[in-house]
Amino acid sequence: VQLQASGGGLVQPGGSLRLSCAASTSAPHINIMGWYRQAPGRQRELVATMWFYGRSGRNYARSAKGRFTISGDVAKNEVYLQMNSLRPEDTATYYCYVNVPRPTDSTLILEYWGQGTQVTVSS
pLDDT by residue (tens digit) across 10-61? Predict the structure, then answer.
């Protein structure tokens, strides 16, 4: 799986950014796509994920609810994260995430994270 993310940058508090990620995979389908983030000195944490296959629904971190919106294009294997009302504590490297079935056993999964895109919220 190859993941290509874009859309990070520097924004003032209260501003907005939109992250995009495109996945290339030979897997028959993608189960889940989404976003994680990691701030300096902290563990990587989930931001938002959504089902692409088999189920429906979106999952948000508490800190993201009401401010961030995840969406996706299943046909294009793309996922997006619209981030509004950004705060300095949202500053982190944001990683695109994908979950696909294992080729040898579709009941098992493989997980991948992209290289990351930097989001800095500062005045």
Answer: 999 999 999 999 999 999 999 999 999 999 999 999 999 999 998 999 999 9
Q: What are phi and psi of 89, to 5 degrees?
A: -70, -5
Helix, strand, or coil (residue 88): helix
Question: Is the pLDDT at 106 greater than 90, yes or no?
Answer: no
How many other C-beta atoms are found inside a 10 Å radius of the C-beta of residue 50?
20
Question: What CA–CA distance (Å, rounded) separates 79 from 97?
Answer: 9
**What does the longest C-alpha to C-alpha distance in the chain come to?**
50
N-term to C-term CA, the chain: 37
